[in-house]
Amino acid sequence: MTVLAAEPAADPAAAPLAARRELPPSMVERMTLILDAFDGRSTRLTLEDVARRTHLPRSTAHRILDQLVRLSWLEHTPFGYRLGQRALGLGGRDGGFEEIRVAAAPLLHELQIKTGMVVHLAVLEGAAVYYLDKVGGRFAGAVPSRVGGRAPAHSTALGKALLAWLEPEQVDAQIGQAIGRLTSRTIGDLSTLHQELNRIRQRRGLAFERGECFPEIACVAAAVRGPEGPLASISLVGDAKMPLEKVAPLVVDAARQVAVALHPNLDSGRRPRPVPGAVPRAAGPTWSSQTLDRLLAAGENGDWL
After folding, report:
1. Of the candidates 255, 169, 171, 239, the residue with the CA atom closest to the CA atom of residue 205
2. Residues contacting residue 182 through CB under 8 Å, at least 6 positions apart
3. What is the biggest distance separating any 2 CA atoms in the chain, rounded to whole angstroms?
4. pLDDT value of residue 197
5. How far apart are CA 43 and CA 174, in angstroms?
6. 47 phi-psi bin (left φ>0, alpha ψ -120 to 50, beta other)
7. Which of 26, 82, 85, 181 could form an S-S bond across to 186 if both were Cys, CB 3.0 to 4.6 Å?
8. In 3D, which of 271, 253, 208, 283 has the Cα closest to residue 104?
9. What are the φ/ψ torsions at residue 9 (nearest 5 degrees)?
10. CA distance 227 to 77
11. What is the mean pLDDT of each run of 10 residues along the chain (305 residues)?
12. pTM of the shown model
């Protein structure tokens, strides 16, 4: 009878060593492993999810995730990590924003037809707003903005409407080094900016600016808010003497409708994440007539700024 040689017993201590040898040797490979773990634009992963999918040690995964967040390849939200603006934009400059553009387009045109004013759609990119769309009227040529252009976030109603719904620490990190004056009316320091952002929250998200970015231009804006924070903002633009308070409710309602188009469950009890110190949002799907009357009265009394 032939006797088969027994397989040598596995060395328990050798398994961790073998696993370590199989880890990708370079940082580029490890970063690629982590980015590949996000298999869709809407994928949300915790640190534990990433470590499990990549088979990287938890401490290694955490260190690389932090670097990817700092470089905007990923974004860290209260619900986990997701692809950031840099990763989403690889397929084209608007690769990460096309869904917002499509949802907002009919409402931007409706706003322009109702008011005859220039309408903007923008997102926040670091310390600047990035213009996704511009719908113009006769006044369009006098507004020095363009699709694909940028402007300092702290000097625009679009930017302030978005910054108002970020944590104060995020505002400091994104705007702190870039804050400066473009005109005599531009907010020039973080303390004043935080006061203005608090006033915007007290107005339930309505942001105004008159001559802060360009001397002869005024804007009113409101943020399109999702479950995890601000997604974009919409503004109406006029000359610096135009009474924008009268059209403010139209901007708010358009921003709400875009938010619902992107996240239909927002109107079924799920609300955007609150910011500390912010006034809670009204329970209804839109602002009450009493609230709008109070806002308009405040504007007529010069209490916006």
Report:
1. 255
2. 152, 155, 212, 213, 214
3. 105
4. 95
5. 24
6. alpha
7. 181
8. 253
9. -65, 140
10. 11
11. 43 44 71 84 82 91 91 81 74 64 91 91 90 80 83 93 92 86 89 93 91 88 90 90 87 93 71 50 41 48 41
12. 0.63
Tell me the C-alpha distance between 2 and 122, whole Å: 78
103's enclosing H/E stretch is helix 98-115
Which amino acid is present at 160? K
Rounded to the nearest angstrom, the gap between the alpha carbon of residue 211 and the centroid of all alpha carbons in its chain is 24
pLDDT tens for each residue of 40-70: 666 788 999 999 999 999 999 999 999 998 8
CA-CA distance, 204 to 188, in Å (whole number)?
A: 24
In CATH, the architecture of 98-300 is 2-Layer Sandwich (3.30)
Report the topology of domain 14-89.
Arc Repressor Mutant, subunit A (1.10.10)
